[in-house]
Amino acid sequence: MNKILNFKGKWRSYQERILNNLNFHLLDKKLHVVAAPGAGKTTLGIEIISRLNKPTLILAPTITIKNQWKQRISDAFLNGEEDIVSTNIRNPKYITIITYQALLAAFCGVEDIEAEETSEEDDEVERTVCKRFSNTKANQIVNILKNSGIKILCFDEAHHLRKEWWKALDYLVDNLEPEQTGALTAT
C-alpha cells in the first residue's frame, strides 16, 4: 500500500533515532514518546502514523491542539490535494482527529459535539456528561470507527488526561481492539 503521508522536512536527531528503531519500539503494540514541549512530538507522531500506514484516530486535549494536528498534517505531510482528515468522530476518514471531550460526549449520545468541546475546560460539564455515559451510544461510535477501518489510536498530551475521560478511553481501547496505540507526552 502506498504511503499517503510523506514528510517534507528534515528530522531532528532524537526523532531520527526513534524512527530508525521504530519496529523495536512497536513490538508490544504500545508506543510512549516522552519529549519536552516544542521538541516535535506531533510531527514525529504523524510520521509514525505514516509508517504504520493504517487509518488512525488521534485524540487531543483541546480544540487548539486538535487543530494544530490537522494543520501540521496539511503543511508538513500533504501536497494539498488529499482529503484524508476528519475532525468528526461520526464521519471518520483515514485520519480522524478529535478531543478527548468529543469522544466522551459521543459515547454519551451528545449530538452537538462541537458545543461540548467548547466547554472542555469546565470540570462540572464533564462530570455531568460522564453520568450520561451509554454503552449503547459508545458501541455505535466504536462500530463507526471499526467500519471505517480505524486500526491505530494516538493519545496526544497524555499527561493532561482527566479522570472523566478514562472511562471513555478504556471502553474505546477494549472494544475497538486497535492494532497499535501510541501516547505522546511531555512528562
Short description:
By secondary structure, this protein is α/β, with parallel strands linked by helices. Helix content is 48%, strand content 14%.
Protein described:
The protein is α/β, with parallel strands linked by helices and 187 residues long. It is built from nine helices and six strands. The chain has helices spanning 13-20, 22-25, 41-52, 63-77, 100-107, 113-118, 123-131, 135-147, 163-176; strands at 30-34, 56-60, 85-86, 95-99, 152-155, 180-185. The radius of gyration is 16 Å and the shape is globular. The termini are far apart. The model has no long low-confidence stretch (mean pLDDT 88).
CATH architecture: 3-Layer(aba) Sandwich
The helix-strand sequence is HHEHEHEEHHHHEHE
* CATH secondary-structure class: Alpha Beta
What is the number of E strands?
A: 6
**Count of all domains:** 1
Approximate strand percentage:
5-15%
C-alpha Rg (nearest Å): 16 Å
Number of helices: 9
Could you say which structural class the secondary elements and strand pairing correspond to?
Answer: alpha/beta
Shape: globular
The average pLDDT is: 88
Low-confidence stretches: none
CATH superfamily placement: P-loop containing nucleotide triphosphate hydrolases
